[in-house]
Amino acid sequence: MRKLVGKKRKLKKTSFLKNVVILVTAHIFIKIIGVINKIYLTNKQGFGDEGNAIYSSAFQIYALFLTISSIGIPNAVSKIVSERLAVGDSKGAHKTFKIAVITFGFLGFILSMFLCMYSKKMAVEWLQIPEARLSLLALSPAIFFVSITSVIKGYFNGRENLNIGAHSQTIEQIFRTILTISLIEFIAQTTGFDTRVMAGGAAIATTLSEIVCFIYLYRYYRSVKGEIANEIRRSVNYKYKGIRKTIKEILIVSIPMSIGPIIGGINKNIDSMTIIRGLKKFMTETEAKLEYGILSGKIDTLVSFPLSFNSAFTSTLIPVVSAAKASGDINKANKKIRFSMLISILIGVPSTVGMVIFAEPILEFLFPNQPSGGFLLQISAISITFIMLNQNINSVLHGLGKTIVPSIILLLGAIIKLVLNTVLVQINPNEFILGGTAGAATSTVISHGITCIISLAILKKYINLQFGIKDFLKPIFATVMMAVCMIFIYNELIGIFSAKLCIILTLLISIIIYLLLVLILKIFLEEDLKKIPLGIHIYSILKKLKIY
Q1: Range of weakest confidence among 15-24, 324-333, 405-414, 454-463
Q2: Predicted pLDDT of residue 23
Q3: Is 241 helix (H, G, I), strand (E, B) or coil?
């Protein structure tokens, strides 16, 4: 952060694909650091699956409050700012930003206080995990800071400059991991491995890292403030709008955009509020907490890892589609929409297959002290592609201004999830294999699958999307071939190398095989292939080999 002091930065606008590359790189790095953090906590004496249950349950409540105060804000601010800039109204774009900072900073402060004051009630009555109160208290201040940082990120996203957001997230994750390990080690030595306090320490690390993120973003904004002022003075097409009217405009966009994430947050809390209640019908409270910890800690971390690749496309699609709509050229965005959905399939399908085939070896490799949960991972992994496609479709619909549609679909998904959870979780898995915690994982897959089909059908009504069942066939064929190779390679190596080295080599070789199959089968169009990093060189080689 020292580089920002006393130095004026040049505002940069980057291309769609460059934004994607920036975000993919940042999200992969962030996820890797996050997985390392989770591996450390899960394997740490005194934390484990029980610590995951305590921290994850508190974090889901915190995440729901974040959704209310800020989750829809980056996309809403990004949409409005990109539309203003598209018609040359830089002054209006910046005014929207300033008003959003004050409005949502105040809302974040109120929600921080609310979470602090009602932390005991939420831990005892809502979650039925009294130990989670300390974690809720530690997380409460972070809501205020995230509310403001979300607005800043949204402003620069709208300017199609995603570097700052990617850098801030990277810094936040690095600090979170360092602080988590430091605090947990200190607490473990001073409290005798008190799980409740260790979980609280992890929550404190989260809050401190958000404060660091806020400081970084604020200092960056100060460093480019002079250039923004010059741009505002050159602004054209500025139309005066009062503060109330501007707030109303922001809320009109942000509230529908927030409804979807709020429902998604409620969806996540369905597990935290129903699993332990349901499991206590046929097991002890301690056993129920451990089961929930397995699902909310290890399984959710692994399933969400492939989604980091997809987040880059969803973040860039909204301003791209909004700007295309504002300029009356939606066909310009159509190819980018198809490309992003194809990437989701190419990442999601093999990720699902890999986790299903090697669920237990992966868990044993990453969590040697807490390796349980193989069957849960196999079920949960099925939802990956559905979630990815839903994210892309929802972003496009938001960019088109159809913000209420994704919310209605997500609400339907949440209702399906709640009903299935209520029924399946209470069934003893000894009586029905998809009962208990597996029932919660199954309900997640079904709800995402149904909403994905509905969302895709609705999107095709709004735009002429050149994307259908045939686009799944080649990726599925490539995945099947990869799976066959994975099984063969692993079986051949298992008698030669250790189990850990076998799984690493198998996954690496399988990824290479899959990428080669993607190129050989010509899954990418020529123009798409040329857009990816080193794509022109790859295309030249493939053309010489007469593949393209």
Answers
A1: 15-24
A2: 67
A3: coil
Q: In 159-279, where does DSSP find H-type helix? A: 163-191, 195-233, 243-279
Q: Which of 302, 333, 303, 300 is nearest to 316 (CA)?
A: 333
- The helix (run of H) or strand (run of E) holding residue 126 is none
pLDDT tens digits, one per residue of 212-227: 999 999 999 888 888 8
Q: Which two tokens stand for residue 131?
A: 């130990």
- Tokens matching residue 1: 């952060």
Q: Please check whether residue 77 is in contact with residue 106, taking contact to mean a CB–CB distance below 8 angstroms.
A: no
Termini Cα distance of the chain:
46
| Mean pLDDT across 441-445 | 95
Statement: residue 534 has pLDDT above 80: no
Determine contact, residues 285/275, Cβ cutoff 8 Å. no
Is residue 85 within 8 A of residue 159, CB to CB? The reply is yes
Nearest alpha carbon to residue 350 among 512, 511, 522: 511
Say yes or no to pLDDT of 352 above 90. Answer: yes
| Tokens describing residue 148 | 């403001």
Task: Return contacts of 431-438, CB within 8 angstroms, 24+ apart.
Answer: 434/379, 436/278, 436/279, 436/282, 436/291, 437/275, 437/279, 437/291, 437/292, 437/294, 437/295, 437/376, 438/375, 438/376, 438/379
- With residue 9 as reference, give the H or E element that holds it: none
Is pLDDT above 90 for 354? yes
Please give the structure tokens belonging to residue 525: 């169009």
Residue 342 confidence (pLDDT):
86
Q: Which residues, 6+ apart, have CB-to-CB distance to 468 below 8 Å?
A: none
For the chain, the helix, strand and coil percentages under 3-state DSSP, each to the nearest 5: 80, 0, 20
Q: Where are the alpha helices (DSSP H) in 400-468?
A: 404-424, 437-462
- The angle that helices 90-117 and 142-158 make with each other, rounded to 10 degrees, is 160
DSSP state of 428: -
Could you tell me how many residues make up the chain?
548
Residues 6+ away with beta carbon under 8 Å from 108? 69, 70, 143, 144, 145, 146, 147, 148
pLDDT of residue 3: 43
Q: Please check whether residue 348 is in contact with residue 389, taking contact to mean a CB–CB distance below 8 angstroms.
A: yes
The secondary structure of 474-534, three-state, reads: HHHHHHHHHHHHHHHHHHHHCCCCCHHHHHHHHHHHHHHHHHHHHHHCCCCCHHHHHHCCC
Query: Which residues have C-beta within 8 Å of that of residue 424, sequence separation ≥ 6?
Result: 434, 435, 436, 438, 439, 440, 442, 443
